[in-house]
DNA sequence: TCCCTTAACGCAAACGGATTCATATAGTTG
DNA sequence: CAACTATATGAATCCGTTTGCGTTAAGGGA
């Protein structure tokens, strides 16, 4: 059996409570006693039993991270490791542990989450997604446990703390980046998934086009996700259009990669013949050829901020739920170019 | 305050011990009593307090997952989400929770790991990497806590339980796959990182070449990692060689992507002019153009098996530490072709 | 010297269950 | 009907910490 606070107390000729206070560095204990006790702790190789502390403090000092289940999503880039790094950076500062909630199906995840909350294994939760028909968030609301959603909640904005990019704004900015380069015929390639982020980015594209007085052709809009066949087909359709777009906004680097090679197969060059801006600024965008100009959503910061919000909320729950927007930044690389620049040169 | 086992006992007119036995479905309790107690639990909305159980059972029912810190590594594909899915699948079956051990630096990770072990917050650990100069594994050995390493341990094979692919064999197989296609001039592109897997794959390549009586030209061997500039340069050097290789073994899909576009820039075609086989079978290999033949290392299974080993070890620690090898499978796509096949057709 | 304040520390009760051992009840056997 | 055996239940104890409150002793003021 490991050495307990009592063993230390006995050996140091003090009461267990004194040892406890030494551990928490209470000002009520004299420096002399502290030194004595710490010496004994050292000698005996004492280490606090966190579980016992958890029990009496009624707080597990643990936050749960709820992963999205969908495999296709999880395949996407390095979202999980980066966001976890961000979360853990803050957790370490406040001595919180991280518990992963996951499962093969949405129902598994839901059950796991409920179990953790009811079993008091977590003090709060971070939900790594936001989507319709989700059971976890409603449960958490009703349970009263602090939680923050990473992404824009489907409903109940002021009742839910959330951290997100302004995806509408980001997509608008990306689109306007192209517009400022002189592009007017801009296509959009997104995904029509159930996740909020997909919708927001499409919305942002539309806003930018409209507020700049540009037409949105239906034939310029394509939806697919991580599907090379569809992707190539969609790209070909786009390129073969009589009035071919001069630039494309693509909501994910991976999809951009598909488009990229499809375009090259058609003997067009990027960015000379067509400009591309994509999202997420993953390794892919650095490695692609040419390297892709991509919107960095700052995943680490998303994680870090959501942890900050959560821990704040745990320490003093407030009725007003806030939201934090992490700015996105356009990482300029080599996939965009002013429209018709080469032509001008010839004049 | 939440309803406890005592509240339930009082309301049901039984002793707390009886309620406890009902929870664990002990055969010593009559069905009638069980029904009665369960009904009361239901009515009162009782849920077990896992923390209390943890304390008295002297087991946290939690396993720790130690991530690798290096950002460049974590950027790599979808290793983390997939391995976590595998681990969690088994954990759920045995009612284990997952605690993530991570940090911005190796030292942070080490400290976190020690804290978790000494504080008895975990019953065992899974280490997601294997590398030299690591402090975590030695500490775990000395602490006596059950753990399993994912990857081949640097030392102490029979003292450490580990789960791994046979990376030497996998690389040999990949190389022989090309050899069987008639290739003799085979290049190797790997990384010279500190991780064991990198060394093993290079070793496997060498073995295959040697045992098939093929020459290994120094100029056919290149090392880089996720670096487009180096990658392109290395590829150009390879292609511009007087006696150009007809096939390349590349130890990571991402690197293969770099090579792929460099080759296309030089107006060569894959697989017609040069065959490529890579590793990890990530989304990239499906999305690349052409889709890459890639060695699937079965990440989910790696996670699942390591969890199985760990939980076994927790339940009954044994002196003999075993190792489990997860088979790799070559996922055939369109980046490999028999050498000179087109030529033959012309005869 | 006596009283009062205050610093320093100890006591014991939680925290919410699991476990153990003793006891009670019902049923069986000779 | 006594003796005995299963089976079911109760009460006490423990797990390792924290914490509110009480105690002790030292020190200062009058």
Element layout with pairings:
The structure is a homodimer of 347-residue chains.
Chain A: H1 5-12, H2 16-23, H3 31-44, H4 50-57, E1 62-66, H5 71-75, H6 79-93, E2 97-101, H7 106-118, E3 124-127, H8 136-143, E4 147-150, E5 161-165, H9 167-180, E6 186-190, H10 196-211, E7 221-223, H11 228-240, E8 247-250, H12 253-265, E9 275-279, H13 283-287, E10 293-296, H14 299-315, E11 323-326, E12 329-331, H15 341-346
Parallel strand pairs in A: 1-2, 1-3, 3-4, 4-5, 5-11, 6-7, 6-8, 8-9, 9-10
Antiparallel strand pairs in A: 10-12
Chain B binds a DNA duplex (30 and 30 nucleotides) through helix 2 and helix 4.
What descriptive keywords fit this protein?
347 residues, DNA-binding, DNA-binding LacI/PurR family transcriptional regulator (chains A, B), six-stranded parallel sheet, six-stranded mixed sheet, HTH_LacI (chains A, B), transcription regulation (chains A, B), alpha/beta, disordered C terminus
Structure description:
The structure is a homodimer of 347-residue chains. The termini of chain A are far apart. Chain A is of the alpha/beta class and 347 residues long. Chain A is built from 15 helices and twelve strands. In chain A, helix 1 (5-12) packs across helix 2 (16-23), helix 1 packs across helix 3 (31-44) and helix 7 runs parallel beside helix 8. At the A-B interface, helix 4, helix 5, helix 6, strand 2 and helix 7 of A face helix 4, helix 5, helix 6, strand 2 and helix 7 of B. The structure holds a DNA duplex (30 and 30 nucleotides).
Structural class category of chain A: alpha/beta
Look at the structure and give the mean pLDDT of chain A.
90
Strand content of chain A: 5-15%
**From the alpha-carbon coordinates, what is the Rg of chain A to the nearest angstrom?**
26 Å
Major β-sheet profile of chain A: 6 strands, parallel
**Count of strand segments of chain A:** 12
Work out the oligomeric state of the chains in this entry: homodimer
Total helices of chain A: the number is 15
Largest interface: which pair? A-B, 59 and 59 residues
């Amino acid at each position: 059996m490991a050495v307990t606070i009592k063993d230390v107390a006995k050996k140091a000729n003090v009461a267990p409570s004194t040892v406890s206070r030494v551990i928490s560095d209470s000002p009520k204990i004299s420096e002399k006693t502290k030194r004595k006790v710490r010496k004994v702790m050292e000698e005996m190789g004492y280490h606090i039993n966190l579980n016992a502390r958890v029990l009496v403090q009624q707080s597990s000092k643990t936050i749960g991270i709820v992963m999205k289940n969908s495999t296709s999503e999880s395949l996407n880039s390095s979202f999980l490791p980066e966001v976890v790094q961000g979360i853990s950076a803050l957790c370490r500062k406040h001595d919180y542990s991280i518990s992963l909630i996951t499962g093969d199906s949405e129902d598994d995840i839901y059950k796991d989450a409920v179990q953790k909350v009811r079993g008091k294994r977590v003090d709060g939760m971070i939900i790594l997604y936001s989507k319709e028909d989700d059971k976890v968030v409603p449960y958490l609301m009703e349970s009263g446990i602090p939680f923050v959603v990473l992404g824009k909640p489907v409903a109940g904005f002021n009742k839910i703390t959330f951290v997100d990019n302004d995806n509408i704004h980001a997509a608008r900015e990306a689109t306007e980046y192209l517009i400022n380069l002189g592009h007017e015929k801009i296509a959009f390639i997104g995904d029509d998934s159930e996740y909020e982020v997909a919708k927001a980015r499409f919305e942002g594209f539309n806003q930018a086009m409209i507020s700049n007085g540009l037409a949105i052709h239906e034939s310029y809009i394509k939806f697919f996700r991580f599907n090379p066949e569809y992707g190539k087909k969609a790209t070909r359709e786009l390129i073969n259009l009589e009035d071919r777009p001069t630039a494309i906004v693509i909501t994910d680097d991976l999809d951009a990669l598909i488009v990229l090679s499809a375009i090259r197969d058609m003997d067009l060059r990027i960015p000379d013949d067509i400009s591309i801006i994509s999202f997420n600024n993953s390794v892919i965008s650095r490695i692609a050829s040419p390297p892709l100009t991509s919107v960095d959503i700052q995943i680490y910061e998303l994680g870090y901020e959501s942890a900050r919000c959560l821990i704040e909320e745990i320490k003093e729950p407030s009725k007003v739920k806030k939201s934090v927007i992490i700015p996105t930044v356009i990482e300029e690389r080599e996939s965009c170019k002013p429209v018709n620049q080469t032509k001008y040169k010839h004049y």
